[in-house]
Amino acid sequence: MSQNDDQDNQKPTISTGKLLTTKPGDLVPEGPQKSFIERATASKEQRRAQQKAERIYYDSELSKLKQTLEHEVASHKTYYEQLTQEKCAKLVREFQGKIDQLHLAQQDAKMESCRLAIEKTDTEIKKIESSQLAEPMKAKLIERLMDNLNKTLDALG
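Below the sequence we write its predicted structure tokens.
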């Protein structure tokens, strides 16, 4: 055997830097390197597990906060809507009272206008009846006054 054959048959060591094959495709270092890699791998897995646990905790806290905020927003929205409805109802009642007063004033004005129109027509009729006009002329004038009065009353409603 040559010296090269002896080197190829030697077990790999740390000093040679060669790796030992345990399964096809898997390379595992020997000695202290192997334990270092195992510790590093375990440490890396612990970090990953810790990160996953922290992420789960963060997500659950975030979900709780989101639910709390959604509940508070809904509560404020409900309060705002209720307050708005109460204020609107109060304003509507106030304005409804004013609208009712305006309708009453309008009705009073119509009644007063009707009363004045009737009084004026009555006064004109009395003047015509007391005048020296011929009866057919008096009847025509009174008829015109009554037509005008009816039109005025219709216009006033």
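The longest helix spans residues 31-130.
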